[in-house]
Amino acid sequence: MEAKKRETFSSGLAVFLATLGSAIGLGNIWRFPYITGMNGGGAFLLIYFLCIILVGIPIMISEFYIGRKTRTNAVGAFGKLGRGEFGFIGLMGVLSSLLIMFFYSSVAGWVYSYVFKSLTGTFQGVTSQTSAKIFESAITHPWQPLFWQAVVLLVVALVLILGVKKGIEKATKTLMPVLFILIIMIDIRALTLSGAPKGIDFLINVDFSKVTGATILTALGLAFFKLSLGMGAMITYGSYFTRENNLPATAAQVALSDTLVSLLAGLAIFPVVFTFNMEPSAGPGLLFITIPLVFSKLPFGNFLLALFFLLASIAATTAMLSLVEVPVAYLSEEKGFSRKKAVVVTVIIIMLFGSLATLSLGGNQAISQLKIFGKGFFDFFDYLSSNILLPLGGLFTAIFIGYFINKEDFIKELSNHGLIGNERLGVFLYRILRYITPALVLIILLNSLGLIKI
């Protein structure tokens, strides 16, 4: 009876938009476009798509399988599959999602604050020096970053308290189309600038001379990290899928759409950057220092800048919904919390530890001087989740499916018990997960730990 009471998404479109919202994050806005441009453009994309086929999509489908098959949270799923001893994989996912939220909510707070600053004219007549000072103040002020971090978490909490259909589904159905509309509006304006040809060339020009072993490792890592894998999010969202949903098709659509959003973001950013002879390799500074500077030089620049940071805030919010939902589902289903209590407890935990990450960047001298293995709280939470727990989670998931799940059962679930004819694809994916994906994820883990370098 409990399984029948459990909420699910209402349709295939809802599944796609929610899952895409989980995959799209702030990295799509600045990191992926820049890495693509610096590593051969179209040549890098070809390598990236191959890595997506061998790593990203197989693990995403594996997590979808675990979630939909069991209809429960990331920890309890393994017990329902008769493999409770593998529940540690789900626990790693819960811990990873919390650790990511500790620092990601801080960055999302900066984005929210920049929407407000854009609307209030803070960037009118801004110079490179004043733009840098605005960003420094945004991250080192003793209380303002905490305020915006709290605002972000309040928005996420209010959506999640409403549940799967009224909360997550409704929010992503609304926000994802808005995200696409905003990014296309900014693209149209950016492509009219004099630097548009250089920006397009930087982003998609095929240059195999820039491809090295390091390029391949970068593509491999991005294929894993960009799709919200190894953190329990896709298992949790998978548990809300409909029985009719085509798991492989959804994974492929999300991977391709996620890449498309990244490229559209690049088309919005780089024509502007090259028009004003700025440096495209500024990393996070590109988002918070360079972009306000260059948009301020355009007609209606403040309006466009507000749209840009609204776009970034949507990307951050939809990604956070899936991350926070992981511990919420765990507390609700494994610990017996009501949904509202689970959300409140989770958000309080995130705010308590997240404030340490936020203040470690300079808002509080005592906290910023505290180090864990030589790293401040912000960098430590990032390193532990991104470099260790996520790759380990992906590695164990691939091994679990490839060696501890019945092959025929896996293929049946992917073909919706013969209704959609994915049998051959299921056989192919099972072999990939058994022999190729674990080896490649192990390479990602070793590279992220600095144990191998090319």
What does this entry look like structurally?
- With 454 residues, the protein is an all-alpha fold.
- The protein has one domain (2-448): Amino acid/polyamine transporter I (Up-down Bundle), CATH 1.20.1740.
- It has 20 helices and no strands.
- The longest helix is centred in the C-terminal third of the chain and has 34 residues, at 301-334.
- The radius of gyration is 21 Å and the shape is globular.
- The protein starts with a helix and ends in a 6-residue tail after the last helix.
- The model has no long low-confidence stretch (mean pLDDT 92).
Question: What is the domain tally?
Answer: 1
What sort of overall outline do the alpha carbons produce when their principal axes are compared? globular
Mean pLDDT: 92
Q: Let me know the number of strands.
A: 0
Assign the CATH class: Mainly Alpha
Count the helices. How many?
Answer: 20
Q: How much of the residues is beta strand, in percent? A: under 5%
Annotate the secondary structure layout:
Layout: H1 2-5, H2 12-23, H3 26-38, H4 42-70, H5 76-80, H6 87-119, H7 128-140, H8 144-161, H9 164-190, H10 196-204, H11 213-225, H12 233-238, H13 247-275, H14 284-295, H15 301-334, H16 339-359, H17 365-369, H18 377-404, H19 407-414, H20 423-448
Helix pairs in contact: 2-9, 2-13, 2-15, 3-10, 3-13, 4-11, 4-13, 4-18, 4-20, 6-8, 6-15, 6-16, 6-18, 7-14, 8-9, 8-15, 8-16, 9-13, 9-15, 10-13, 11-20, 14-15, 15-16, 16-18, 18-20, 19-20
